[in-house]
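Inverse folding, one chain.
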């Protein structure tokens, strides 16, 4: 499960972008000049899809969901002084839920088509507004 949790965090992080920052000095990134004082926003989800950082094998693209991906790198929980203090608890809770829920509710499924789920539209936080499910007893 830990590999699956990391891959889910890499593929669909709950935080879409960083808060705004300003470049402290002139810098060039990917051939694009960023002058000192420029507004900079990091797309955290895109960072997890950068092939060299995502740990992709030669035959898979960064958009592929692969729970066996070795060492999936991402910024879903931040980094450095901006690392989420609840990150380890979030990872543990997700791993437990992914292991226990299918065992306890084996016939759990979406009650609506996946493409009809309404997403949060904040621009910073990602997720769905509701997740209707159904299950059969027995």
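Residues assigned per position:
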């Amino acid at each position: 499960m830990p590999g699956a949790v990391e891959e889910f965090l890499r593929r669909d992080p709950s935080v879409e972008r960083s808060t705004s920052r300003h470049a402290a000095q002139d810098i060039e990134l990917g051939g694009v000049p960023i002058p000192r004082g420029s507004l900079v926003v990091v797309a955290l989800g895109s960072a997890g899809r950068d092939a060299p950082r995502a740990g992709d094998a030669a035959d898979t693209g960064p958009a592929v969901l692969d729970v066996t991906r070795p060492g999936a790198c991402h910024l879903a929980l931040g980094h450095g002084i901006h690392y989420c203090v609840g990150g380890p608890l979030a990872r543990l809770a997700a791993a437990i839920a992914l292991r226990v829920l299918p065992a306890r509710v084996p016939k759990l499924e979406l009650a609506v088509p996946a493409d009809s789920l309404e997403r949060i539209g904040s621009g910073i936080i990602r997720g769905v507004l509701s997740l209707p499910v159904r299950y059969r007893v027995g």
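The mean pLDDT is 85. The beta strands are 21-22, 27-29, 32-34, 39-40, 108-110, 133-135.
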